[in-house]
């Protein structure tokens, strides 16, 4: 009997580990997140953002490409809610870096989750798990 109980407990724990190891790729609308109440509150309107191949003026100065990788607590949140929050954190980091380097825009922003490029003008890619969500972005810091 003890062997059966031990076996059941071991299998249950293995199943729980598998559940916590979820790492789904989620694609979320960029404009919807940027225009949300949190987006308006958190982001710097003085640093312009251009995603994927969006057209922009020719840069007067270029700093170079930067990458940011952010994680957030996803426990008891929908994938979209957790991904939106961590996306804003990643965008804010790009904007802060642009300001620090004396520039006013980030162009060619692409998702870079697990070093996999995903370029879109409309959506970003997020890794959504049971307890953690993550967004990695890369973009070129420039002065327009």
Automatic annotation (TrEMBL):
Residues 1-21 form the signal peptide. It comes from the Bacteria. The keyword Signal applies. Keywords: Signal. This is Excinuclease ATPase subunit. It comes from Corallincola holothuriorum. The lineage of its organism: Bacteria, Pseudomonadati, Pseudomonadota, Gammaproteobacteria, Alteromonadales.
């Amino acid at each position: 009997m003890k062997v059966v109980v031990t076996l059941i407990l071991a299998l249950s724990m293995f199943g729980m580990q598998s559940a916590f190891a979820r790492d789904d790729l989620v694609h979320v609308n960029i404009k919807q997140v940027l225009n949300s109440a949190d987006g308006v509150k958190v982001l710097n309107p003085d640093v312009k953002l251009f995603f994927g191949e969006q057209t922009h003026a020719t840069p007067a100065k270029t700093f170079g490409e930067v990458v940011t990788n952010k994680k957030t607590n996803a426990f008891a949140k929908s994938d979209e809610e957790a991904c939106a929050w961590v996306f804003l954190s990643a965008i804010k980091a790009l904007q802060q870096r642009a300001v620090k380097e004396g520039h006013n825009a980030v162009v060619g922003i692409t998702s870079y989750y697990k070093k996999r490029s995903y370029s879109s003008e409309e959506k970003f890619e997020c890794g959504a798990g049971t307890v953690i969500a993550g967004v990695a972005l890369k973009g070129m810091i420039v002065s327009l």
